[in-house]
Amino acid sequence: MRVAVHGKKAAIAAAAAIVLAGCGMPSQRAFTTVTNTMTVTLTPPAPPGQPKKTFGEGLYQVGVDIAPGIYRSTGADGSNPAGCYWARLKSFNTSDYIDSGISNSPQVVQIDPTDTAFKTNSCQPWQKTD
Fold it and tell me: Where are the domains of the chain?
């Protein structure tokens, strides 16, 4: 039996026909034709983009969001009197840092491929230099 369904009512009717087909005496047959059809189009997800080489404030996964390498910021963006803060992290727990710094002056940091994440606040944009 070939059944093409469209919508909830048609799907219920098709299921009922299948169930009824197996419920009668061997000489009895249930037959239902459903004429509506449904087209399903599946679109695969877009491939992931390349890691950023320039970025601003936030928490970034190394190797996914940002590429490992040497980055430079011209310093604090003025939003925090203490200055530009950054941290290389072992995990996404922001207190689980490998190294960190805070300054109003220009900053240079090497983000290693083994770092899990990089956190930055109140800094001018970071630019990859290598």
Answer: 1-42, 54-128
